[in-house]
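A further point concerns the way the authors explain their paired sequence and structure data. An entry of this sort, consisting of the sequence and the corresponding C-alpha cells, reads as follows:
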Amino acid sequence: MEKIVELKNVTKTYLSGEKEFNALNNINLSINKGELVVILGPSGAGKSTLLNLIGGMDTPTNGEIIIAGENISKYNENKLSDYRARNIGFIFQFYNILPTLTVLENVELIKDIINNDVDAKEAIKAVGLEKHMNKFPNQLSGGEQQRVSIARAIAKNPKLLLCDEPTGALDSKTGVEVLKLLKKQCDGNNGENTVIIVTHNSLFADIADTVIRVKNGQIESVIENQNPKNIDDVKW
C-alpha cells in the first residue's frame, strides 16, 4: 500500500527546567494511505507529540518526517503553515469552535485558507447538523459542537485528519456517532483520506485498520488489524 506518513529516526526533545526530556526517542514509523489508524498509550507516552509532529504543529529535534512525499521536518514556519492548510484537518477533545459565529460561519472559515474545500453546507449535512446551521455553539449540545469541529475539518478535504481524544468529552452514545463520522471520512474520497486518532481508550483498537502503541517515547508495536470490527459491534 502507498505510504502517506514516514518518520525516520525521529527524536523530539524538550527542556524541563535544566534537564532535557525526550518525548519521542529515535522512532521509525510508516502509515498507509486510506487507513483508520489508532495511536494508543498512557498519558505522557508521546502520543500527542507524535500527532503534533505529523500535523506540522511542531518540528523534530532530529530525524525526518515525510508526508505524501514531502519532507516537512526542515520547513520554516511559513511553509509549515501552508502545509497544514493544504493537507491537515484537526479535531481535538475540546472543540475549538468560535462562540460568536454560527455553525455555518464556523465551517465556512475554511474558505479563507484553502481552495479545494468541500462546500460548507454539504459538510454540515454530512454530520447531521443541517437543521442547526444558523445556531450558535452555546445553543448546541457537546456532541453537536464536536460535530461542528468535524464538519470544519472535513470541509478542508484533508489528506490527513488528525484527532486527539475526539470523544474524550462525550458520552458513549455520542462518541459512537462521532467515530462513525470519522470512519465515514476515512472510507470516502476513493481511499485518499487517512484518519489518525490518538487515544488512551484501548477499545478503539478493535475498529482500526492499524494500531500503534506508544510507551515512554518509543513505538512499542505496530499491528495491522485484518478484521476490524464494525463500530456498533463494540461494547463501549
User: Anything to note?
Assistant: The chain has one domain: 3-233. The beta strands are 3-16, 19-32, 36-40, 62-67, 70-71, 88-92, 160-164, 194-199, 210-215, 218-224. The first strand starts at residue 3 and ends at 16.
